[in-house]
Amino acid sequence: MPVADHVLRHAAERPARPAVCGHDAELSYAELGTDIQGAARHLRGRGIGPGSLVAIGLAGPAALLTAVLAADLAGATPLVGDPAWGRERWARVTGALTPDLLVTEPLPYAPGRALTPDPDPADLAWACFSSGSTGRPRAVVRRRASWTDSFAPFSELAGIGAGDAVLVPGPLTSSLYAFAAVHALAVGACAVVPGRLPTTTPAGMRATVVHLVPHLLDEVLRRPGSLRTAVVGGAALPPGARASAAEAGVNVVAYYGATELSFVAADADGGGLRPFPGVEIEVRAEPGAGLGEVWARSPWLADGYLGDVPGPLRRDAGGWASVGDMARPYREGEVLRLRGRGDGAIQTGGATVVAEDVEEVLRTVPGVGDVVVVGSPHPSLGSVVTAILEAEGASPPSRAALESMARGGLDAAQRPRRWYAVPSLPRTQSGKPARALVAARLAGGDPDIRRLA
């Protein structure tokens, strides 16, 4: 069933219920349903229907969600992109793929009869860009069933229902935040979509659930308001985050996934990551190796990349897929112990260092807000481990304090040889530190990256 059909059903059953609270509009389900129908008729009048690709670059979250659901109702595939992109940028990121329509203004209302499409679960029903930590966007597309059929197990896992107000404090161009908003509307909840973490917006304080990335959790917990649950994805939880949330009366549901794989594993109680409902997991490692690649098989996998562009998604003949994330050896029934993306590994003096292992230790140093670890070229070692810190306060911890923590928690090969500080780390759309961009700026001599003596 299209998500738009869910919204229209809620509009008929609970028309006055708040549906969307954005900086551009606040809509009840009745108002949202009316706008979706009118916009879908407009699209059909433009020749948009099943098999069409509609590129959507709108800054207003309410207008964006209306356009996405209108395309859904019309039977087309919506592709959400950055509202700052012009037509030339759209042409570059879509490559040889040409959208049938580019939406850069809110869709107008067209009067007429209600649309009642007959969708197929195999329809291509959602597309969004994934850049990972590289900054090179790829359009990931998924079939209707892989998108909407995961709503029920996710609702049960996170305890989200029609009575909730779900805060989505990030851009809907991110698949993490887009899923949060669309799922909220599918279950009849209110999607609070300010596009960022609100500081004074009262609507944010009325939220009962928040979807976010780890680096925003601490700020949310300082003013939890009526929050009951925090759904955290995109990266590993920092040390002590779950305990801090419990003190604030907030339950944390953490999950691991990827735009291409959707949900892979979840941790709702602090017991560790275990397979998301319907997911099988394998960690494929060479005999005796301490790390292997994570492979998943599930109904939730994406179809692939639009335009057949290359990317990290790989499949095998058995229906398994991987994006190259690494984990400790795993057996069914055990906890999945992630160690990050394979391309984050650093080869130094014959040793392989996983950047996330080092980052996990350094984040426990008082005064470190976040950290990125990369490899810097070295004439004899190949690379040396290099840490770039984002301080919590006005200044970073001393190098002596950092090296003391490194000696106590890291093997010799893992300890950073070079230390830098930066006012703020660049991040991907989903809020993760952009590792490749940090490395590029460091190599380019960015003056904002200061070496610690």
From TrEMBL:
Residues 358-432 form the AMP-binding enzyme C-terminal domain. It holds the Pfam family AMP-binding. Residues 9-104, 117-306 form the AMP-dependent synthetase/ligase domain. It comes from the Bacteria. One of its GO terms (molecular function) is acid-thiol ligase activity. InterPro entries: AMP-bd_C, AMP-bd_C_sf, AMP-dep_synth/lig_dom, ANL_N_sf, ATP-dep_AMP-bd_enzyme. This is Long-chain fatty acid--CoA ligase. The lineage of its organism: Bacteria, Bacillati, Actinomycetota, Actinomycetes, Streptosporangiales.
